[in-house]
């Protein structure tokens, strides 16, 4: 029994596994999915026991896009007045680490949601694409920006202009995904990665995430200042003292999260 209409949630020790669960629509992202994801990610961020999250879909589809049937009646006035899609910024505001584990289709909003993750782990069946142009529109959840930053102008432009899908091998070569695993092992591998992250000092995990993200938001000089300040900040934590003491004493660190 899930608290969410469109999500299934499992806890694996300190890792939260969230499965998109609209099989009848290939996990298309409608308003309910957004409401549920915002709540699930906020609950994860607020729970000190949970240290990493994995978001996945089904074997056939991570998500086949924003829900076309829901968007069909909406025109400019509605979308502009409601700042349609802005709610996804609440998902990207998640401070703690999370991984997208993608099998099958990650198209349109599905590709854009995967790219909001800290990194993507792809099954060998994964297919990424921004086919919005075939609907007479364009990406609306950050795809034109995040895809271009991830894979560069040539591939992003080709994918957005032609709607061509990229398979897992090409996505790994283009640095869209961190790693490819056999489809049958996707969840196990994602949980393993997440457990490794969950075993790290929690404040250091947030800081590492903020630093890497700063590389996308700032120039090099400011990014390095940001990194150095945050690094100096971490040296004031109890977990820095514990981590370095544990190394010297040849034992694993025991983190307090302070
Ligand atoms: N929205 C709503 N329903 C969907 C979606 C979707 N994005 N994708 C699939 N479905 C539904 C189908 O309608 C079908 O439902 P039904 O059985 O009731 O007809 C069911 O899921 C199964 O789909 P198919 O029968 O099509 O399955 P296939 O295996 O034949 O094909 C595909 C799989 C190739 C993934 C195909 O479903 C497809 O092309 N889907 C659409 C992909 C797409 O175009 N995604 C981009 C959507 S737009 C977007 O994400 C951002 C838009 C930004 C616009 C901003 C303007 C406001």
From TrEMBL:
Domain of life per record: Bacteria
SUPFAM superfamilies per the UniProt record, alphabetical: ClpP/crotonase
Keyword Lyase: yes
InterPro entries registered for this protein in UniProt: ClpP/crotonase-like_dom_sf, Enoyl-CoA_hyd/isom_CS, Enoyl-CoA_hydra/iso, Enoyl-CoA_hydra_C
Keyword match Lyase: yes
Keyword line: Lyase
Pfam families in UniProt: ECH_1
Family membership: Belongs to the enoyl-CoA hydratase/isomerase family.
This protein's name: Enoyl-CoA hydratase-related protein
Species lineage: Bacteria, Pseudomonadati, Pseudomonadota, Alphaproteobacteria, Sphingomonadales
